[in-house]
Design goal:
By secondary structure, the chain is of the alpha+beta class. The chain has a domain at 24-69. It is 24% helix and 14% strand. The chain is built from two helices and three strands; from the N terminus they run H-E-H-E-E. It has a three-stranded mixed β-sheet with strand order 1-2-3, with no helix packed on it. The longest helix is centred in the middle third of the chain and has 11 residues, at 24-34. The protein is elongated. The chain starts with 23 loop residues before the first helix and ends with a strand.
Length: 72
């Protein structure tokens, strides 16, 4: 299973600048998701299901097409 947290920008990085434009680290992260650099995302209904599927805390999974971050 690919490491789904390896390319995450630090949480302290802003997602957008003062003009609402995505910052470079966030834009690169979105490109990585779009190009499957992170591997196909696990489909899970919630954090508990994602955990059962092997997604680590702070790892990514998807639910109905929305990318989610496992928190618990």
């Amino acid at each position: 299973m690919p490491n789904r947290t390896a390319n995450l920008p630090p949480a302290s990085n802003p997602w957008v600048d003062g003009k609402g434009v995505p910052t470079i680290p966030f834009a690169q992260f979105l490109s990585a998701i779009d190009s499957n650099v992170l591997g196909p995302l696990v489909s899970a209904a919630n954090d508990a299901a994602a955990a059962k599927a092997g997604v680590p805390i702070n790892g990514l999974y998807q639910n109905a097409g929305a990318v989610r971050i496992r928190l618990v």
